[in-house]
Amino acid sequence: MYAPPLITEHRFSIYPTYVVSTAIWSGGNSARSERQRAAQANLSDNTHKGLLSAKASSRLRNAVNWLVQSAAWKRVYSKVDNKHYYFKVNFITLTIPSQSRGEVTPKLLHKMLHTFLVYSRKYYYLRNYVWKIERGSQGKIHIHLTTDTFIHYRRLRDTWNRIMIGEGLVDEYYQRTGHYDPNSTDVHSVKKVKNIGGYLCKYFDKNSGLPESFNRRIWGCNRELSSTNKCQYIASLDEVSEVAEPLMSHEIKWKRIMSKPDKLGSTRSIGELFFINGDQWSRLMRGRLREAYDVHRLNLRKGARSPGENYLIIQDEISRLPKTLTGSLKERSEAASRTLGERLEIIKEPASKSHETPKKLTAEQLVLRWADN
């Protein structure tokens, strides 16, 4: 028997520069449309051909914006120069000396980039980064990289040159100059740029200039900045109006998201898109959306991934506890533990650094955190 679809919840997908509000339906017909079936042939061809699709371009901009908005200004001391640097994010370019034997193959370029990232994660504590491969105006292929980790320009250059020497890409340069130290890296200063996110997005989102024969990925980022690490809030129908209240400010621009026309040319509204910049996030946003946004930024800053399913379930159980518990901190935590009973097991808390062993968090410790808030 057919059951008409019903709206059960509301999803707020949170991004650095916008929020998407859509309804979650249950029931109805889940069969694929004719347009979706026709798109299956296109999905089988997953080559990049040196181009960024509209979807990939949007993901790249989101990754860069999350990187910028999660990074904190910090003062870094360099023993090499015996001076301090005021630093938030950097913008690095990795180049390859010209080769008489032709261009470096996409496979070798990716191998070198992978080696550089692995080395940087181990020795420079690299966490968040976005990279993109481009062909310059002179025809040379190079790599743009932005991170929130300070790497001294001299160490950066030595690291990249050692990788190229291992692949024999500096031999011709040595024959011309007599040394193995080409100026293969460049660090652009973005400290004085007012809109760092917009500046980097404009730079990363331009045409890569790569040929169609380039059959490898042309951009990437760490998992925490990728689209797989979603930031969203699922609101019940009772709390939708409260959660969405900050989005109703006259300073926030918005538009409806319309479906594609059907065979009769009719469209329908499937959601709303709210445009929010960094200043509006700090001034206007509050409540559940602001909380989810801040937690996501903090996790990115610490290098922690989103909590696992069990952690979220236990957090949901804690949120259902009565807010009227009285007494000392110890008494409140003990009362909360008795309320939850056997449902709380030992869980793992995400580690703050990739090389650290995850800490075990007992039920009592978790409840103690809740009671202390």
Provide structural commentary.
This protein is α+β, with helices and mostly antiparallel strands and 373 residues long. It folds into three domains: 1-46 and 231-304, no CATH class; 54-225, no CATH class; 307-373, no CATH class. The chain has helices spanning 34-38, 40-43, 54-70, 106-123, 153-166, 171-177, 196-204, 240-244, 278-283, 287-302, 309-319, 329-340, 363-372, and strands spanning 6-14, 18-26, 74-78, 83-87, 90-94, 129-135, 141-147, 185-188, 219-221, 232-236, 253-258, 269-275, 347-349, 359-361. The strands form four sheets. The protein has a five-stranded antiparallel beta sheet with strand order 10-1-2-12-11. It has a five-stranded antiparallel beta sheet with strand order 8-5-7-6-9, sandwiched between helices. A hairpin with a 3-residue loop joins strand 1 (6-14) and strand 2 (18-26). Helix 12 (329-340) packs across helix 13 (363-372). The chain is globular. The model is unreliable at 305-318 and 342-364 (pLDDT under 50).
Produce the secondary structure layout.
Blueprint: E1 6-14, E2 18-26, H1 34-38, H2 40-43, H3 54-70, E3 74-78, E4 83-87, E5 90-94, H4 106-123, E6 129-135, E7 141-147, H5 153-166, H6 171-177, E8 185-188, H7 196-204, E9 219-221, E10 232-236, H8 240-244, E11 253-258, E12 269-275, H9 278-283, H10 287-302, H11 309-319, H12 329-340, E13 347-349, E14 359-361, H13 363-372
Antiparallel strand pairs: 1-2, 1-10, 2-12, 3-4, 5-7, 5-8, 6-7, 6-9, 11-12, 13-14
Helix pairs in contact: 3-7, 3-10, 4-5, 12-13
